[in-house]
Amino acid sequence: MSKKIKWGIVGTGWISDQFVADLVHVTNGEGYAVGSRTIESATEFAAKHQMARAYGSYEELVQDSEVDAIYVGTPHPFHTENVLTALRAGKAVLCEKPFTVNSGELEELIGFAREHKLFLMEAMWTRFLPPIRQVREWIDAGRIGEVKLVKAEFGFRVEWNPEGRLLNPDLGGGALLDTGIYPVSFASMVFGPEPKHVWSTAHIGETGVDETFSILLDYGNGRTAMLNGAVRLGLTNEAYIHGTKGSIHIPSFLNSTSATLHVDGEEAQTFQDDRASTGYAFEAEEVGRCLNKGLLESSTISLDESLGIMKLMDQIRAQWGLRYPFE
Hints:
- The protein has helices spanning 14-22, 39-48, 58-62, 79-88, 103-115, 130-140, 175-191, 281-292, 303-320; strands at 5-10, 29-35, 53-55, 69-72, 92-96, 120-123, 147-155, 197-204, 210-220, 223-230, 239-243, 246-250, 258-263, 269-272.
- The chain is an alpha/beta fold.
- The strands form two sheets. An eight-stranded mixed β-sheet has the order 8-9-10-7-11-12-13-14, with helices on one face.
- Helix 4 runs parallel beside helix 5.
- The N and C termini lie far apart (46 Å).
């Protein structure tokens, strides 16, 4: 019989709130404890989600012997420190995307986790959504032939706030590390994380971070990906995959509830997901499955792939000359 994983939550912000709210839909896990920089915030969060324990520091949280897995929901400049705190306490960790700010940080985390045989995974929740699983099945079955082109974009227009997380270089702001992780990871899902050639352009705003970007990736043999992202421009947030025998369309691909298969000469086929959860439940379920099977990582989003994606994002930022003050 599978053990029900007791989750400890690092951070009480919006994404942590969304993740814990979805745990009620998880069969192999439950929200158990939360840690924050203040006991007041932790106590309020725990009461809202009916969690057993609240701690006024992350260090206290990870020392709780009842906690099986830690979810890190803090802003990405703090991921390395927060994940290491949990790993050093011997905990399994699910860390929000982007995993880290750069590949050097991620190499440190992966090295520690592998050396100490601890579970670690990037919380790329999109990969585990039923429509995206169906998309991968269609591709693997050859329904659209040989895949030649991926198009994906995610962008929104945030209100001007130079001190806010999205536009502040001291907080790792900018489109690539916030919205960009979605289309870049989506292309990696289809073609892998190591294109042969990378071209990109970005608009660097007055705060010094990328407000919009466009990326063209060449994987060889006529396979390309066209990706866009923005935090100061609304985009369609759609994804398309084109093959030699048809195509797949995923509206709002990052939190997709449907996907449509277009095979040449056949009627369109739509997969519709009427899930009750927002969608974060599926990644939590995967962590529980892996832990109950004694696995140290998930094959759906492996640590090597996460590292390849982060190296690619480093390369893209280097083309723009964008480095953060703390790097």
